[in-house]
Amino acid sequence: RGGGLCAMWSARQLRALRGVLGSAFSTCCRLEAMKAAAKGLPRVYVTRRLPPDGMTVLQHSGACHIDQWDSDDPVPREELIKKVAGAQGLYCLLTEKIDEEVLEAAGPNLKVVSTMSVGYDHLSLEELKKRGIRVGYTPDVLTEAVAELTVALLLATSRRLIEAAHEAKSGGWGTWKPLWMCGNGLTESTVGILGLGRIGEAIAKRLKPFGVKKFLYTDVAPRIEVASKISAEFVSMDVLAQQSDFIAVCCALTPETQGICDKKLFSNMKPTSVFINTSRGAVVNQDDLYQALVNGQIAAAGLDVTAPEPLPLDHPLFKLKNCVILPHIASAKIGRA
Length: 337
What we know:
Mean pLDDT: 90
Strand content: 5-15%
Number of strands: 12
Order of helices and strands: HEHEHEHEHEHHEHEHEHEHEHEE
Strand order of the largest sheet: 8-7-6-9-10-11-12
Distance between the termini: 64 Å
């Protein structure tokens, strides 16, 4: 009987072992099949760790083999140049400059470059066009997020919220004083918008309930259809500066807009005016902005974007109480299902 029991247990163990081995073999076969299939698929290089939903779409598409820099930090330039070689697709972020050097390294197989951003000033469009490479980007997905952040930054800057919070924490909060921490309000104000696109329109719609009296805008040409929705008046850059109590910069970064917010603009603005930039850092001459803030040409500035990013900790703008600087978080919004 003892021998029969041992034989029975051995048979059970053998069947279990066969099951485990069979499962492992099946898994191994599937993995090898996937690897073999991937060899025949276009290779897409992804330059950052992406939101899980986005990666799921790519992985489950079965249309490409994904090679990824799986980190929250930007891919090093030398790694990008090495990994993009031979790729058919490139999925990048604003932090990657896709220029002639990268495209040369990629070679003739590269057919499409997509960027997880509304802006595409980091892409060399001329070089891409020359090579017949298609470009993908994400217009309109951040309109609401950027508009909300712009309004929040405008209020935080004009009503001196960051400065006031610091005073409360550091012992500066004493007895109430009538003129202490006074800032500029939106009621009966004039708001100027530099670059009236989707985001500029969304900002104006959010500001109107605060009692804004007038919206002005300047652009490369009148935007009649958009302007009519918010009752905005098209004016020159000089008039925008002279009449606005608040200026919100919403334009794209182009060769024409690079450094457009300079000494001339700030010198034309009211000494009580507030300057807000949530577009691109390079549209502002930051040295001129610093001088305007220090010399009282304008009252305050709020920046969500700078040049470079991140802005060095010893940059003089960080030393000013009337300059609020955020770490480019306009897109940092959690969506609802």
